[in-house]
Design a protein that fits this description.
about 190 residues; mainly alpha
């Protein structure tokens, strides 16, 4: 029995000695990348795309708000559509959302945050799409671009659902919509 314990001890010591190399602990923080390095290769673009995805489901890091990405938006939209029946009108910070009145208030933090959050993410998708121009087309680049285009379309659709006037069949060309941002470059308009 002592022989097996000694062998296991030696094995653990060998693994502990050569298992971790110096470069294991030297990683660059994800917020230390410059836009040029983040968009320099399809591999780096995939990391930036994953950051967009995290921003969509995680707690917003853009401002000091309580909003948690799509986890906050989905119930908010359900209340407005009448798909969710709530037996009480809501209390506290979510009361105006439950009563479906915050969307009509021009000073509502919900509206400001949604507008800023979605256009921020659209800008990130545009940065990825624009940086891919002139790159050698690979399967990974196609995958990254496909996801970036899908995110941009989804986010514009969300903005239309939340802020645009419902189209009328009489003359759809005069109805209000939202600005479509296909490039992230100055001057920002809309």
């Amino acid at each position: 029995m002592k022989k097996y314990i000694n062998k296991i001890f030696v094995l653990v010591m060998v693994v502990a000695t050569i298992g971790c190399s110096d470069d294991y602990l030297t990683t660059q923080p994800t917020d230390a990348y410059t836009p040029a390095s983040a968009l320099s290769s399809p591999e780096n673009m995939l990391v930036a795309l994953n950051g967009m995805h995290r921003e969509m489901y995680g707690q917003s890091s853009l401002n000091e708000s309580y909003n948690a990405g799509e986890c906050y938006v989905m119930p908010m939209m359900e209340y407005g559509a009448g798909d969710y029946i709530r037996p009480i009108p809501g209390v506290g910070w979510f009361a105006t959302t439950c009563k479906w009145t915050s969307h009509t208030d021009a000073n509502s933090g919900n509206n400001d945050w949604l507008w800023f959050q979605y256009y921020h993410l659209i800008g990130s998708a545009n940065n990825i799409i624009n940086a891919a121009e002139g790159m050698v087309e690979t399967d990974l680049l196609k995958e990254v671009l496909g996801q970036a285009y899908a995110y941009r379309a989804f986010l514009h659709h969300r903005l239309v659902c939340l802020f645009a006037k419902n189209p009328q069949y009489s003359d759809e060309t005069t109805e209000l919509g939202v600005p479509i941002m296909l490039k992230t470059e100055a001057p920002y308009q809309g």
